[in-house]
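Quiz preparation item.
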């Protein structure tokens, strides 16, 4: 199974995914961003883009990597990855369905003000213009398709540990 944690940059996916992994027996965290980083390391580089998700190889490589890891190790993969473009989510979820891999899709949501404050006050990455750029696209995706496609966990007033517990309970329950 895959437990996909979606939501915009700064929503707490990475922190929450590590906590979810601790609560789900036989689970591992698979950061699909590493697939994008591998593509970014190709030289000479792939066509210029502001987001590696726009490169057509990224989506099937995420599916194939997840499939191969599950085939090899079994268990559950916890995937903290923002996907705000509906056709990209459809491609990934259809690819996983093709291999009969069940997906529990969660969105970590926070209101705009909370999200902006978290990005501004991030003690690890600092205020990130890249993360700020995705606040509005996330809001648009949430309004138009994303929240209808996932189980929404409103983290505005939750700690990452509380959010992780809700996700783990939903998966186990």
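Solution:
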């Amino acid at each position: 199974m895959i437990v996909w944690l979606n939501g915009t940059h700064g929503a707490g996916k990475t922190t929450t995914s590590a906590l979810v992994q601790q609560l789900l027996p036989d689970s591992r965290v698979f950061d699909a961003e590493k697939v994008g980083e591998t593509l970014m390391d190709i030289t000479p580089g792939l066509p210029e883009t502001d987001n590696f998700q726009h490169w057509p190889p990224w989506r099937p490589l995420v599916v194939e990597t997840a499939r191969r890891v599950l085939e090899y190790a079994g268990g559950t993969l916890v995937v903290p990855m923002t996907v705000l473009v509906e056709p990209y989510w459809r491609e990934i979820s259809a690819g996983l369905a093709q291999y009969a891999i069940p997906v529990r899709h969660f969105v970590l949501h926070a209101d705009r003000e909370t999200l902006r404050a978290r990005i501004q006050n991030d003690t690890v990455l600092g205020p990130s213009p890249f993360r700020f750029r995705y606040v509005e696209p996330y809001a648009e995706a949430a309004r138009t398709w994303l929240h209808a496609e996932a189980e929404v966990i409103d983290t505005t007033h939750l700690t990452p540990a509380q959010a992780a517990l809700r996700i783990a309970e939903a998966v186990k329950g």
